[in-house]
TrEMBL record:
It comes from the Bacteria. This is DUF2999 domain-containing protein. Pfam families: DUF2999 (PF11212).
Length: 84
């Protein structure tokens, strides 16, 4: 399992929140960082998680792919956001 998803699951983050988070990562990484901080993960684990994200950004794409988030969905979400 992807180490980012594994850490989130370890801290009882719901599947819905995981999916939402990775959609945010693919659209706006800074927004995703803010979302991660709101998940109630202890600071020491959050720091480890952020280190993994920053040093291994390919894991974000792998996780998004494993969650079924493709580039078409990302582009569609961006278009919807712009139209609001």
């Amino acid at each position: 399992m992807n180490p980012i998803i594994a850490t989130l699951k370890e801290h009882n983050v719901s599947d819905e929140k995981v999916h939402e988070l990775f959609q945010a990562f693919t659209q706006n990484p800074m927004m995703a960082m803010a979302l991660v901080q709101q998940l109630g993960i202890p600071p020491e684990k959050l720091q480890q998680l952020m280190a993994v994200v920053m040093t291994q950004p390919h894991l974000i794409k792998e996780a998004a792919d494993s969650l079924g988030i493709d580039q078409g969905q990302v582009e569609q979400a961006k278009a919807q956001f712009k139209n609001q």
